[in-house]
Amino acid sequence: MARLYGQYLWHLSEDIWTSPGYRVLDGVEETLRRLIAAGVILGVVSGAMEGAARTKMEPGKLGRYFVFGAYGSDSPDRTEVTRLAIAKAARLQCRDLGKQDVYVVGDTPHDIEAAHAAGATAIGVASGHYHAGELRAAAPDHVLRSLADPFPGLS
User: Which structural domain, as residue segments, surrounds residue 119?
Assistant: First the structure.
């Protein structure tokens, strides 16, 4: 199985690096830099296997911003993956984290539902398949049209 997964990652990496559709979304790097400058510790929550999730960030050099993560390889349940990431963040902070301490940014209603179920602040970003109205229907705490919009809590 490890060999097959390795071959999958190699092909995934090749596809991502050569894909004409791959792009870093507007505002992503600036927002990540501003969050780090504000002292935020960034983590990744992904339903993909860890290797695949990290591979997807390589062409945009985005992985360097994220200290930790939780992935589909940790659990098939999106809410559980989110809770695992929050637990890792709490260990890094050496304290319990409340809703006001944890922002989960996602582009699907499922991401918003998982954030709420895990006790986090949910921020919907209409940068994927869902528009702002569809994300609002999932009742996030904040909705952004893109990460170029002002990020909640950052001045």
Answer: 27-144
Domain presence at residue 64: yes
Residues 6+ apart with CB under 8 A from 138: 109, 112, 113, 122, 124
Q: Which helix (H) or strand (E) holds 9?
A: helix 2-18
pTM for the model stands at 0.86
CATH number at residue 106: 3.40.50.1000
Total tally of structural domains belonging to the chain: 1
Residues 57-109: tens digit of each pLDDT: 988 999 999 999 999 999 999 999 999 999 999 999 999 999 999 999 999 99
pLDDT tens per residue across span 26-56: 999 999 999 999 999 999 999 999 988 998 8
